[in-house]
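Reading is simple: the C-alpha coordinate line describes the chain's fold. The lines below illustrate.

. . .
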Amino acid sequence: MPVPALSLAAVSPVPISQATGGLEVWVLRLADVSRRDLDTTDLDQDECRRAARLVRNSDRHSFLAGHVLLRELLSRRAGCPPREIVYGRERCPVCGGPNGRPVVTAPASGAHFSISRSGGLVMVALASVPVGVDVEALPSGDAAAEVSALLHENERRQVLSAAADERSGVFARLWTRREAYLKGLGTGIAHGLDSEVGHGLDAEVGHGLDAEVGHGLDAGVGHGMDAGVGHGLDAEVAPGMDAGGVAGGQAGGPGWTIQELPIASGYAAAVAVASPQATGAVAVASPQATGAVAVTSAQATRAVA
Protein backbone atom coordinates (compact mmCIF):
# COMPACT_ATOMS: atom_id res chain seq x y z
CA MET A 1 0.00 0.00 0.00
CA PRO A 2 1.80 3.17 -1.14
CA VAL A 3 1.95 6.11 1.24
CA PRO A 4 0.33 9.31 -0.12
CA ALA A 5 2.65 12.13 -1.09
CA LEU A 6 1.34 14.51 1.60
CA SER A 7 4.19 13.66 3.99
CA LEU A 8 5.98 10.39 4.56
CA ALA A 9 6.63 11.48 8.15
CA ALA A 10 3.06 12.56 8.82
CA VAL A 11 0.96 9.80 7.22
CA SER A 12 0.90 6.21 8.47
CA PRO A 13 -1.29 3.27 7.47
CA VAL A 14 -3.03 1.48 10.31
CA PRO A 15 -2.13 -2.21 9.99
CA ILE A 16 -5.24 -4.31 9.32
CA SER A 17 -5.37 -8.05 9.95
CA GLN A 18 -8.36 -8.67 7.70
CA ALA A 19 -9.16 -5.97 5.15
CA THR A 20 -12.87 -6.72 4.95
CA GLY A 21 -14.52 -4.86 2.11
CA GLY A 22 -11.21 -3.47 0.86
CA LEU A 23 -10.74 -1.55 4.12
CA GLU A 24 -7.74 0.69 4.62
CA VAL A 25 -7.25 3.20 7.44
CA TRP A 26 -4.70 6.04 7.53
CA VAL A 27 -3.59 8.32 10.33
CA LEU A 28 -2.26 11.82 9.67
CA ARG A 29 -0.18 13.54 12.35
CA LEU A 30 -0.82 17.27 12.00
CA ALA A 31 2.29 18.31 13.93
CA ASP A 32 4.33 17.10 10.95
CA VAL A 33 2.31 19.00 8.34
CA SER A 34 3.58 22.53 7.72
CA ARG A 35 0.76 25.02 7.27
CA ARG A 36 2.95 27.11 5.01
CA ASP A 37 3.83 24.22 2.72
CA LEU A 38 0.41 22.53 2.62
CA ASP A 39 -0.78 22.55 -1.00
CA THR A 40 -4.56 23.02 -1.07
CA THR A 41 -4.91 23.82 -4.77
CA ASP A 42 -6.71 20.52 -5.46
CA LEU A 43 -9.55 21.30 -3.02
CA ASP A 44 -12.86 22.45 -4.48
CA GLN A 45 -14.69 25.68 -3.72
CA ASP A 46 -16.98 24.08 -1.17
CA GLU A 47 -14.05 22.68 0.81
CA CYS A 48 -12.32 26.06 0.78
CA ARG A 49 -15.48 27.87 1.88
CA ARG A 50 -16.04 25.47 4.73
CA ALA A 51 -12.44 25.78 5.88
CA ALA A 52 -12.71 29.58 5.81
CA ARG A 53 -15.74 29.45 8.11
CA LEU A 54 -13.75 27.75 10.85
CA VAL A 55 -12.73 30.23 13.54
CA ARG A 56 -9.64 28.59 15.01
CA ASN A 57 -6.46 28.32 12.96
CA SER A 58 -5.88 24.82 14.27
CA ASP A 59 -9.31 23.71 13.04
CA ARG A 60 -8.70 25.17 9.59
CA HIS A 61 -5.32 23.45 9.39
CA SER A 62 -6.84 20.13 10.47
CA PHE A 63 -9.69 20.44 7.99
CA LEU A 64 -7.48 21.40 5.04
CA ALA A 65 -4.81 18.78 5.71
CA GLY A 66 -7.44 16.10 6.19
CA HIS A 67 -9.13 16.91 2.92
CA VAL A 68 -5.86 17.04 1.01
CA LEU A 69 -5.12 13.55 2.35
CA LEU A 70 -8.63 12.32 1.54
CA ARG A 71 -8.36 13.46 -2.06
CA GLU A 72 -4.93 11.85 -2.45
CA LEU A 73 -6.19 8.54 -1.11
CA LEU A 74 -9.35 8.58 -3.22
CA SER A 75 -7.42 9.55 -6.34
CA ARG A 76 -5.19 6.50 -5.94
CA ARG A 77 -8.25 4.26 -5.87
CA ALA A 78 -9.88 6.04 -8.81
CA GLY A 79 -6.70 6.40 -10.89
CA CYS A 80 -7.18 10.12 -11.44
CA PRO A 81 -5.64 13.41 -10.23
CA PRO A 82 -6.91 14.50 -6.77
CA ARG A 83 -8.62 17.60 -8.16
CA GLU A 84 -10.90 15.45 -10.33
CA ILE A 85 -12.61 13.87 -7.31
CA VAL A 86 -16.18 15.20 -7.08
CA TYR A 87 -18.20 14.86 -3.90
CA GLY A 88 -21.94 14.63 -3.43
CA ARG A 89 -24.49 13.76 -0.81
CA GLU A 90 -26.94 10.95 -0.39
CA ARG A 91 -30.40 11.84 0.82
CA CYS A 92 -30.75 11.54 4.56
CA PRO A 93 -32.85 8.42 5.13
CA VAL A 94 -34.38 9.96 8.26
CA CYS A 95 -35.40 13.47 7.17
CA GLY A 96 -35.03 13.13 3.40
CA GLY A 97 -32.85 16.23 3.20
CA PRO A 98 -29.68 16.58 1.13
CA ASN A 99 -27.50 16.03 4.19
CA GLY A 100 -26.95 12.29 4.06
CA ARG A 101 -23.71 10.40 3.81
CA PRO A 102 -20.98 12.12 1.74
CA VAL A 103 -20.07 10.13 -1.36
CA VAL A 104 -17.81 10.31 -4.40
CA THR A 105 -19.92 11.07 -7.46
CA ALA A 106 -17.07 11.13 -9.99
CA PRO A 107 -15.14 9.35 -11.21
CA ALA A 108 -16.96 6.08 -10.56
CA SER A 109 -14.60 4.05 -8.38
CA GLY A 110 -16.91 2.32 -5.92
CA ALA A 111 -14.95 3.81 -3.03
CA HIS A 112 -16.62 4.72 0.24
CA PHE A 113 -14.88 6.94 2.78
CA SER A 114 -15.04 8.40 6.26
CA ILE A 115 -12.88 11.03 7.95
CA SER A 116 -12.45 12.11 11.56
CA ARG A 117 -10.34 14.78 13.27
CA SER A 118 -9.40 15.20 16.91
CA GLY A 119 -6.50 16.31 19.08
CA GLY A 120 -3.94 16.82 16.34
CA LEU A 121 -4.78 13.64 14.43
CA VAL A 122 -6.80 13.02 11.28
CA MET A 123 -8.02 9.51 10.49
CA VAL A 124 -9.32 8.47 7.07
CA ALA A 125 -10.94 5.15 6.22
CA LEU A 126 -11.61 3.90 2.69
CA ALA A 127 -13.46 0.75 1.66
CA SER A 128 -15.43 -0.76 -1.18
CA VAL A 129 -18.44 -0.94 1.17
CA PRO A 130 -19.94 1.70 3.50
CA VAL A 131 -17.50 2.57 6.26
CA GLY A 132 -17.31 4.89 9.24
CA VAL A 133 -14.32 5.90 11.33
CA ASP A 134 -13.87 7.98 14.46
CA VAL A 135 -10.84 9.08 16.45
CA GLU A 136 -11.06 11.07 19.66
CA ALA A 137 -8.59 12.53 22.10
CA LEU A 138 -9.57 11.24 25.52
CA PRO A 139 -11.95 13.68 27.20
CA SER A 140 -11.51 15.17 30.62
CA GLY A 141 -13.16 13.29 33.44
CA ASP A 142 -15.81 16.01 33.76
CA ALA A 143 -16.68 15.87 30.05
CA ALA A 144 -16.89 12.08 30.12
CA ALA A 145 -19.21 12.20 33.14
CA GLU A 146 -21.39 14.89 31.56
CA VAL A 147 -21.86 13.18 28.19
CA SER A 148 -22.12 9.64 29.57
CA ALA A 149 -25.36 10.70 31.26
CA LEU A 150 -26.88 10.75 27.76
CA LEU A 151 -25.81 7.24 26.79
CA HIS A 152 -27.70 3.98 27.00
CA GLU A 153 -27.97 2.67 30.55
CA ASN A 154 -25.68 -0.29 29.84
CA GLU A 155 -23.02 2.05 28.44
CA ARG A 156 -23.41 4.42 31.39
CA ARG A 157 -22.96 1.46 33.70
CA GLN A 158 -19.68 0.57 32.00
CA VAL A 159 -18.40 4.14 32.34
CA LEU A 160 -19.46 4.59 35.96
CA SER A 161 -18.17 1.19 37.07
CA ALA A 162 -14.69 1.89 35.67
CA ALA A 163 -11.92 3.07 37.96
CA ALA A 164 -11.68 6.86 38.11
CA ASP A 165 -8.42 6.97 36.18
CA GLU A 166 -9.85 4.70 33.45
CA ARG A 167 -13.27 6.29 33.09
CA SER A 168 -12.45 8.71 30.27
CA GLY A 169 -10.83 5.92 28.26
CA VAL A 170 -13.82 3.61 28.68
CA PHE A 171 -16.17 6.40 27.67
CA ALA A 172 -14.09 7.34 24.61
CA ARG A 173 -13.99 3.72 23.43
CA LEU A 174 -17.79 3.50 23.66
CA TRP A 175 -18.23 6.87 21.97
CA THR A 176 -15.90 6.17 19.04
CA ARG A 177 -17.64 2.86 18.35
CA ARG A 178 -20.97 4.68 18.31
CA GLU A 179 -19.66 7.45 16.07
CA ALA A 180 -18.01 5.07 13.61
CA TYR A 181 -21.17 3.00 13.27
CA LEU A 182 -23.45 6.00 12.78
CA LYS A 183 -21.12 7.53 10.20
CA GLY A 184 -21.03 4.30 8.27
CA LEU A 185 -24.79 3.97 8.32
CA GLY A 186 -25.37 7.59 7.44
CA THR A 187 -27.66 8.32 10.40
CA GLY A 188 -27.11 11.07 12.89
CA ILE A 189 -27.13 11.95 16.54
CA ALA A 190 -29.13 15.03 15.55
CA HIS A 191 -31.97 12.77 14.40
CA GLY A 192 -32.03 10.85 17.67
CA LEU A 193 -31.12 7.31 18.66
CA ASP A 194 -34.14 5.69 20.18
CA SER A 195 -33.42 2.07 19.27
CA GLU A 196 -30.65 -0.42 19.69
CA VAL A 197 -27.97 -0.63 17.03
CA GLY A 198 -29.10 -2.86 14.19
CA HIS A 199 -32.79 -2.05 14.54
CA GLY A 200 -33.38 0.23 11.59
CA LEU A 201 -30.82 2.95 12.16
CA ASP A 202 -29.66 4.17 8.76
CA ALA A 203 -28.43 7.73 8.30
CA GLU A 204 -25.34 9.89 9.23
CA VAL A 205 -23.57 11.92 11.91
CA GLY A 206 -23.34 15.59 11.13
CA HIS A 207 -23.98 17.62 8.02
CA GLY A 208 -20.41 18.45 6.99
CA LEU A 209 -18.25 16.37 4.67
CA ASP A 210 -16.13 15.36 7.63
CA ALA A 211 -19.18 13.65 9.09
CA GLU A 212 -17.89 14.16 12.59
CA VAL A 213 -19.27 15.57 15.81
CA GLY A 214 -17.62 18.75 16.95
CA HIS A 215 -13.99 19.25 17.89
CA GLY A 216 -13.49 16.24 20.14
CA LEU A 217 -15.13 14.82 23.23
CA ASP A 218 -13.32 17.20 25.57
CA ALA A 219 -15.39 20.03 24.10
CA GLY A 220 -18.25 18.97 26.34
CA VAL A 221 -21.98 18.89 25.69
CA GLY A 222 -23.10 21.86 23.67
CA HIS A 223 -19.57 23.15 23.10
CA GLY A 224 -18.37 21.54 19.91
CA MET A 225 -20.71 18.58 20.01
CA ASP A 226 -23.37 18.26 17.35
CA ALA A 227 -26.40 20.43 18.09
CA GLY A 228 -28.48 17.28 18.35
CA VAL A 229 -26.59 15.75 21.27
CA GLY A 230 -29.07 15.02 24.01
CA HIS A 231 -31.95 14.28 21.66
CA GLY A 232 -32.31 10.58 22.17
CA LEU A 233 -28.83 9.21 22.79
CA ASP A 234 -30.43 6.39 24.75
CA ALA A 235 -29.36 3.74 22.27
CA GLU A 236 -26.77 1.07 22.84
CA VAL A 237 -24.03 0.40 20.30
CA ALA A 238 -23.48 -3.16 21.45
CA PRO A 239 -26.33 -4.30 23.70
CA GLY A 240 -24.95 -6.00 26.77
CA MET A 241 -21.35 -6.11 25.59
CA ASP A 242 -18.33 -4.83 27.41
CA ALA A 243 -15.56 -2.99 25.59
CA GLY A 244 -13.91 -6.22 24.47
CA GLY A 245 -17.02 -8.25 23.70
CA VAL A 246 -18.52 -9.47 20.48
CA ALA A 247 -22.23 -9.16 19.84
CA GLY A 248 -24.34 -10.24 16.92
CA GLY A 249 -27.82 -11.00 15.72
CA GLN A 250 -29.46 -7.56 15.83
CA ALA A 251 -32.00 -7.19 13.05
CA GLY A 252 -32.26 -4.55 10.37
CA GLY A 253 -29.95 -3.31 7.63
CA PRO A 254 -26.81 -4.95 6.30
CA GLY A 255 -24.36 -6.64 8.64
CA TRP A 256 -21.70 -4.48 10.27
CA THR A 257 -18.50 -5.08 12.18
CA ILE A 258 -17.43 -2.38 14.63
CA GLN A 259 -13.73 -2.66 15.41
CA GLU A 260 -11.61 -0.80 17.92
CA LEU A 261 -8.36 0.59 16.55
CA PRO A 262 -5.53 0.66 19.09
CA ILE A 263 -3.79 3.98 18.89
CA ALA A 264 -1.23 6.00 20.83
CA SER A 265 -1.88 6.83 24.46
CA GLY A 266 -4.41 9.60 24.94
CA TYR A 267 -6.70 8.59 22.06
CA ALA A 268 -9.45 6.14 21.20
CA ALA A 269 -10.46 5.11 17.69
CA ALA A 270 -12.85 2.73 15.97
CA VAL A 271 -13.96 1.76 12.49
CA ALA A 272 -17.26 0.27 11.34
CA VAL A 273 -17.45 -1.69 8.10
CA ALA A 274 -20.52 -3.02 6.32
CA SER A 275 -20.43 -6.67 5.39
CA PRO A 276 -20.24 -7.27 1.63
CA GLN A 277 -23.04 -9.79 2.26
CA ALA A 278 -26.03 -8.51 4.20
CA THR A 279 -26.23 -10.74 7.26
CA GLY A 280 -28.40 -8.66 9.55
CA ALA A 281 -25.76 -8.95 12.28
CA VAL A 282 -23.87 -6.24 14.12
CA ALA A 283 -20.59 -7.41 15.63
CA VAL A 284 -18.45 -5.41 18.02
CA ALA A 285 -14.88 -6.61 18.28
CA SER A 286 -11.81 -5.64 20.21
CA PRO A 287 -8.47 -5.98 18.40
CA GLN A 288 -7.97 -9.22 20.32
CA ALA A 289 -11.17 -10.73 18.91
CA THR A 290 -11.25 -12.76 15.72
CA GLY A 291 -11.70 -10.60 12.62
CA ALA A 292 -10.83 -7.34 14.36
CA VAL A 293 -8.68 -4.61 12.88
CA ALA A 294 -5.56 -5.54 14.80
CA VAL A 295 -2.68 -3.23 15.65
CA THR A 296 -0.14 -4.06 18.31
CA SER A 297 0.62 -1.41 20.90
CA ALA A 298 4.05 -0.90 19.36
CA GLN A 299 2.57 -0.51 15.88
CA ALA A 300 -0.04 1.91 17.13
CA THR A 301 2.58 4.04 18.85
CA ARG A 302 4.74 4.17 15.72
CA ALA A 303 1.72 5.12 13.64
CA VAL A 304 0.88 8.28 15.54
CA ALA A 305 3.50 9.04 18.18
Residues 57-78 form the longest helix (22 residues). The chain has six helices and ten strands.
